[in-house]
Sequence to fold (495 residues):
Amino acid sequence: MQLPDESIVYEYQSLLAPQMEEWTPAAELRSRHFLSPDKLRDLLPQLQTVRSQIAAERELTDIPPELQPLEAGFIDLPQQLLDAHRRKGEASELGRILTVASRLKAETDRIVILGVGGSYLGPRVLFDSLCNTYHNELSSDARMGVPRIYFSGNNFDNDALQDLLDLLQTTCVDPEAGREERWGVIVISKSGETLETATTYRAFRREAAEYYGSSSELLRQVIVPITSQTGKLRELSRADGYTDEDIFTIPDNVGGRFSVLTAVGLLPAAVMGLDIRALLLGAAAMTRRFLEEPYERNPVLQFAAVNYLMSEQYGKPIRVMAVWSKKLESLGMWYDQLLAESLGKQGRGATPLTVVCTRDLHARGQQFQEGQRDKIINNVVVKTQKTPAITIGMADHNEDDLNSLSRKGMPDLLDAAWRGMNLAYFDAARPTANLILPSLSEHVMGQLFQMLMLATVVEGRLMGINPYGQPGVEAYKRNMRAFLRSTNSSSQSPM
Ligand code: PA5
Fold:
């Protein structure tokens, strides 16, 4: 397979234990904490078996009890969506998404996205990584018709919710004044039962009914539900007069944290003005690489193998995702959920930790360098920036001593910090690898999402843990509902 320049690469050679290294205290530590190439080689047959197993699971219609739950639908979905769009055009899922996104952009200048966990983090990553950092502050012209984007329904946060409602009330006064004064909602919940989202949605439905009028046709134009085939959100939407064609469906065989490339991520992305076909093309290319490429050119198998061995055999239970761009901080949050909910089962599973570099080197760098040897660090590095380099430049007053660096730009500084950190961690026998992104684009983000989701499934199968489902999350929800039923607490009572 010919890889385009846009392909992401996992470089992990720097954490392989150097062969024939002369004995020094550091070399001794590396031999204990770095990955032995022999161990990696020994794992290859098992990796091939797991890949074949995952490939076969995609075809299963009757799911045996030991594999349940099985939510492998995300693997082929990107290509299926693209194929259906080619065949059916506007009538396809992608066609519908593009049509509804155009309507929301034409009708509103502010969109609130409600959802939590897998129904929140994917759209959040897309907004943070691919839209302008100060998108909501830009003028309407500079935003090129893309509404301002807000996120809510991911917490029980009274003040934050009130602040957002106040903002809508003060900026949108007359719905007849046109799109500048209209706002809409995308409400996302697969189960339709998640209280954070459901309660917040109730507040926004009330607000919208007051603003647009409870029988206004506009309500169903500017509020779009995304949910599963059945459940309370679908029932509520039907009761509100939505037909099933007005509601986007999250397929049953796609789990919440694996749903970013369904309508959950694609509708918000299209509203944000992003190229959702490029996202899907990137993801479909990654699925093909996973299924067809040998280990040496297969970042899914490489990432899964290295991280699996590090946590299971080298005593590295903390998995640090060090993102070298502030725009990828929420990618780290998304991966936190993916790893924690997929593999944190039966007393096992690495603990994810996201850091933004260089910012957090000033907070955690000391511990990474000299603290417990319980971590593997995966850097996520973006090779090219969207904007020209801002150089340090010459100044008349050189008291800050920066004139000697005058020709260096921000990318040079970041690059030097990354190399400097990697070298320092190598010297201190701290295992570190690099996930290289050629740029921040839809195609690259599509690859990255799919790569990390597939690698998590591979890792789960290597561990003998079902990566799908999250039974442990139910316990707190049961207790919370019991407390809510048993107490007559008013909205003002303390915890
Ligand atoms: O991965 C999962 O399935 C969960 O984290 C869900 O995404 C999260 O709990 C939100 O659930 P729902 O979409 O049903 O509101």
The chain has a mean pLDDT of 96. Residues 77-274 form a domain with the Rossmann fold fold (CATH 3.40.50.10490).
